[in-house]
Design goal:
Layout (H helix, E strand, L loop, with lengths): L1 H24 L8 E2 L2 E2 L5 E2 L10 E5 L2 E4 L9 E6 L4 E7 L1 E2 L6 E3 L8 E3 L4 E6 L3 E7 L2 E7 L15 E4 L9 E6 L14 E6 H6 L9 E8 L1 E2 H4 L9 E7 L17 E8 L3 E3 L8 E3 L11
Parallel strand pairs: 3-4
Antiparallel strand pairs: 1-2, 4-5, 6-7, 7-17, 8-16, 9-15, 10-17, 11-14, 11-16, 12-13, 12-15, 18-20, 19-20, 21-22
Protein name: Wall-associated receptor kinase galacturonan-binding domain-containing protein
Keywords: Disulfide bond, Glycoprotein, Kinase, Membrane, Serine/threonine-protein kinase, Signal, Transferase, Transmembrane, Transmembrane helix
Pfam family, one: GUB_WAK_bind
Length: 298
């Protein structure tokens, strides 16, 4: 008689434990799927039990979503989340010398599953006769702005503005500048200088002239941390995942299995012939069929 009672008690305990765990990793019904005009797909979520882990928690304030895990002086407003690209676009502050500062530190993404995207962003400098650069420890990227020429320009070729690629796996940087001597009576080193990392596509749409903005869109790459990846139970028949090395690794193209010991996080996509959310524990990636044209009559 004792054994059945113990088994029953064990089942009750396991059932209670399961009810605590499952909502924390499931895109369950009742969770908000958007904030304002921004869709919030799983593994991101708004409210307890609606996101995979704390890194993907989003707070909705005044119809604007913010990345809760990066909770510091730099509040990252979420502008877009892409499952296909495993990217997120956020509002990020601009360094402007006219506010009296000599440098500006980025949002600190260290130890998180987020990186400043090397392919989606560029370093941009605007002003006259100065070196625009970002730096963190031994990582450096920079470009040089030459003399000011009045008039509109639809390109950034080093005159009054400059651009440069940023390093891979960048999670923290300081934006600053070094002025050079004045060589033109029409320019002074007192002019405002702008230095910032920015989404390249957005800047091109602005014709390389962002104006006097305090924030600009920046692309973050993201993936699921190894510590949480096992909670997803990815369907390998409909989805595939690749692992992303950490910032100290030189193997940027290393691929893919959940047993890897060097992966920092995982990025997943639906296989060819499937579409949907590979991270969704309920629906996941669903097959779709292509519509064939009607046969041509002889």
């Amino acid at each position: 008689m004792i054994l059945p009672v113990m088994l029953f008690q064990l089942m009750v305990v396991l059932s209670s434990y399961s009810s605590l765990i499952i909502p924390a990793v499931a895109n369950k019904p009742g969770c908000l799927t958007s904030c304002g005009n921004v869709s919030i797909p799983f593994p991101f979520g708004i409210g307890t039990g609606c996101y995979l882990d704390h890194w993907f928690a989003v707070t909705c304030r005044s119809s604007k979503p913010f990345l809760t895990s990066i909770n510091q002086l730099v509040q990252l407003e979420v502008l877009n989340i892409s499952l296909e690209e495993n990217t997120m676009v956020v509002n990020h502050p601009v360094f402007n010398s006219c506010v009296g500062a000599k440098w500006s530190e980025s949002a600190n993404l260290e130890n998180s599953p987020f990186f400043f995207s090397q392919t989606g962003n560029i370093l941009y400098g605007r002003g006259c006769y100065f070196l625009a650069y970002i730096q963190h420890n031994e990582t450096f990227a920079g470009c040089y702005c030459s003399c000011y020429i009045k008039g509109d320009s639809t390109a950034c070729l080093g005159i009054n503005c400059c651009q440069s690629k940023i390093p891979y796996y960048l999670q923290l940087f300081t934006a600053s500048f070094d002025s050079t001597r004045r060589t033109d009576n029409n320019t002074t080193n007192e002019e405002c200088k702008l230095v910032f990392v920015v989404q390249e596509e957005w800047l091109i749409q602005k014709k390389w002239n962002p104006g006097n903005l305090t924030n600009v869109p920046v692309v973050l790459d993201w993936g699921v941390p190894k510590s949480s990846f096992h909670l997803l139970n990815i369907n390998t028949s409909t989805s595939s995942c690749k692992d992303i090395p950490n910032s100290t690794s030189t193997d940027a193209n290393k691929s893919s299995s959940s047993t890897s010991t060097t992966a920092w996080n995982y990025q997943c996509n639906c296989n060819q012939g499937f579409q949907g959310n590979p991270y969704d524990l309920v629906e996941g990636c669903q097959g779709y069929s292509l519509a064939l044209p009607d046969p041509v009559s002889p």
